[in-house]
């Protein structure tokens, strides 16, 4: 049985859709107060309204993870509204595809800026509040792509997601003395608006490559985030948890089909 997270203040970036929305709903169901963050206020507020309509506590906020001043405003809003930042889920990410030779410097910078620098900026903004209370939980949404696997078109994305884990390991050491843990969830292929945008053929191909023969749900990822946020996970830091229905396991197509 896990200790209740009721009343804890949670920030989820990239929470207007997909995995972030699932994480926000998961923490709200656990009784947390959730700051739902995305670049578009109306969409963030719609998720906050959904949480409130279900009896939970949430607030929507427009903030871009690539902008330091907006990440500072995000942290300030959470402290003003909830009194503390207990948990940060640095989830916002983009995954436009471009193969080498076609990929531009701007493409590379955009993916790194959101996925890797955005992680750094979100974490940095929340640290003073966490350090002052000698406790905190930071949960990054990385990916199997980059840390474990590769896929043509996503070299920049894979580098950003592997980069998050490099960031995490040193951050975990630096922050351990402040009672702050930093861990990462590595989703496989999860049914989200962003994934649907990659097209029906991609989605069907992915489903077929997962031993469980289904895409993951956003709640599959939310449950892993809730575990890392729990008091019971307090001695776990700098670790990553793959949540992929077994997708990275088969050594070959024959192994998948046997
Ligand atoms: P999604 O459906 O496209 O949703 C992305 C969310 O991020 C939206 O709420 C979007 O809202 C927000 N966002 C994008 N850029 C932002 C920025 N600069 N600042 C603030 N918010 C921003 O994506 P998803 O599939 O849920 O993916 C979420 C995370 O999981 C990403 O980090 C992704 O790399 C990772 N992931 C996903 C999968 C998968 O299969 N879906 C697998 C592995 C890892 P706005 O546009 O309103 O800002």
Give a written overview of the molecule.
The structure is a single chain. The chain has 258 residues and is an alpha/beta fold. It has a single domain, classed as NAD(P)-binding Rossmann-like Domain (Rossmann fold, 3-Layer(aba) Sandwich), CATH 3.40.50.720. The protein has a 7-stranded parallel β-sheet, with helices on both faces. Strand 5, helix 5 and strand 6 form a beta-alpha-beta unit. Helix 3 runs parallel beside helix 4 and helix 4 runs parallel beside helix 5. The N and C termini lie far apart (37 Å). The mean pLDDT is 97. NADP nicotinamide-adenine-dinucleotide phosphate (NAP) binds next to helix 1, helix 4 and helix 6.
Brief descriptors of the model:
258 residues; alpha/beta; Rossmann fold; 9 helices; binds NADP nicotinamide-adenine-dinucleotide phosphate
Please sum up the structure shown.
The chain is of the alpha/beta class and 258 residues long.
Strand-pairing-aware structural class = alpha/beta
Biggest sheet: strands, sense, closure? 7 strands, parallel
The CATH superfamily bears the name NAD(P)-binding Rossmann-like Domain
Number of domains: 1
Total of helices: 9
Secondary structure topology:
Layout: E1 9-13, H1 18-29, E2 33-38, H2 41-53, E3 57-62, H3 68-82, E4 87-90, H4 105-133, E5 136-141, H5 155-176, E6 180-187, H6 193-196, H7 200-208, H8 218-229, E7 240-243, H9 253-257
Parallel strand pairs: 1-2, 1-4, 2-3, 4-5, 5-6, 6-7
Bound molecules: NADP nicotinamide-adenine-dinucleotide phosphate.
């Amino acid at each position: 049985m896990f200790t209740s997270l009721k009343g804890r203040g949670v920030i989820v970036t990239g929470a207007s859709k997909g995995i972030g929305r699932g994480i926000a709903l998961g923490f709200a169901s656990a009784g947390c107060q959730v700051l739902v963050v995305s670049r578009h206020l109306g969409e963030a507020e719609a998720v906050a309204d959904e949480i409130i309509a279900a009896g939970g506590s949430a607030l929507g906020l427009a903030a871009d993870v690539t902008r330091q001043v907006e990440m500072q405003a995000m942290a300030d809003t959470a402290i003003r509204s909830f009194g503390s930042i207990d948990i940060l889920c640095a989830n916002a990410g983009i995954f436009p595809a471009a193969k080498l030779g076609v990929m531009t410097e701007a493409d590379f910078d955009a993916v790194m800026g959101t996925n890797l620098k955005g992680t750094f900026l979100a974490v940095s903004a929340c640290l003073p509040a966490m350090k002052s209370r000698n406790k905190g939980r930071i949960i990054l949404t990385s990916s199997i792509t980059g840390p474990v696997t590769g896929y043509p078109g996503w070299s920049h994305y894979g580098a950003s997601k592997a980069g998050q884990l490099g960031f995490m390991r040193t951050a975990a050491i630096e922050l351990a003395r402040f009672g702050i843990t930093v861990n990462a969830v590595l989703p496989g292929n999860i049914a989200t608006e962003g994934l649907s945008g990659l097209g029906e053929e991609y989605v069907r191909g992915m489903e077929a490559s997962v031993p469980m023969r289904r895409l993951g749900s956003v709640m599959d990822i939310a449950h892993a985030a809730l575990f890392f946020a729990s008091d019971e996970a307090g001695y776990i830091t700098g670790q990553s948890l793959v949540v992929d229905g077994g997708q990275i396991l088969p050594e070959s197509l024959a192994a998948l089909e046997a």
